[in-house]
Write a sequence for this structure.
């Protein structure tokens, strides 16, 4: 059974031999949880957001129908293969790209169609805004769309709650190591290595269901759907 935040804090403080450092330990626990959410994709916190394409928006100078499509306030990043929309209940998957690639797409007025690519602009975060999804080709209709995403998790303030990360051993060891760092404990290096080893073992198995076969996938922007005109013409200089 997973430990509560209070139990993790108390155990970490006892291990680090600084029982009075409960405030610092809770701060470290929140830091560890934020680092995990930012560095890795965990199914246990994955969320789903449903929306309809904005067919009148023309944000950032893109063609009408490209966006913006505001994302949830806790949006951190889109999940791989987690963006799609439906037309007459038939799903169409969109491929995520970098903004530098998105900027190269032709988006003049009149080429609205079925979106196949998207990117999420997170620059509004710096001013307290929300992320915005842009699609290409510009959406020709307000199709119902879905995006699966990993969220930015809120800090724990109620220590009677259980952290979302299920491996309590790692949380205890990681918090204890951080406490040892501020108390100049000689065991810091040992506990830091111990916590990293615990996390590595957990990460190896977290997305490895025994019932699922492994698949190797080609870049859907260049392969698939029998759309061979996506491939560069290697017989002509300059493609």
């Amino acid at each position: 059974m997973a430990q509560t935040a209070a139990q993790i804090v108390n155990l970490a403080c006892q291990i680090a031999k600084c029982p009075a450092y409960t405030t610092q330990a809770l701060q470290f626990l929140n830091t560890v949880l934020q680092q995990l959410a930012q560095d890795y994709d965990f199914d246990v916190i994955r969320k789903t957001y449903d929306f309809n394409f904005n067919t009148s928006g023309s944000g950032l100078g893109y063609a009408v129908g490209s966006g913006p499509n505001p994302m949830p306030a806790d949006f951190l990043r889109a999940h791989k293969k987690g963006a799609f929309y439906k037309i007459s209940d038939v799903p169409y998957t969109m491929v995520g790209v970098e903004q530098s690639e998105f900027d190269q797409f032709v988006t003049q007025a009149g080429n609205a169609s079925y979106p196949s690519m998207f990117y999420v602009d997170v620059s509004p975060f710096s001013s307290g805004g929300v992320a915005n999804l842009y699609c290409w080709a510009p959406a020709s209709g307000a199709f119902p769309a879905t995006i699966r995403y990993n969220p930015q998790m809120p800090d724990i303030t109620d220590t009677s709650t259980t952290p979302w990360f299920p491996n309590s051993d790692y949380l205890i060891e990681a918090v204890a190591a951080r406490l040892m760092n501020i108390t100049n404990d000689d065991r810091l290096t040992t506990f830091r290595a111990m916590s990293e080893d615990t996390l590595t073992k957990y990460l190896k198995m977290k997305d490895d269901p025994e019932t699922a076969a492994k698949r190797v996938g080609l870049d859907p922007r260049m392969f698939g759907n029998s759309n061979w005109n996506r491939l560069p013409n290697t017989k002509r200089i300059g493609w």
In short: The mean pLDDT is 87.
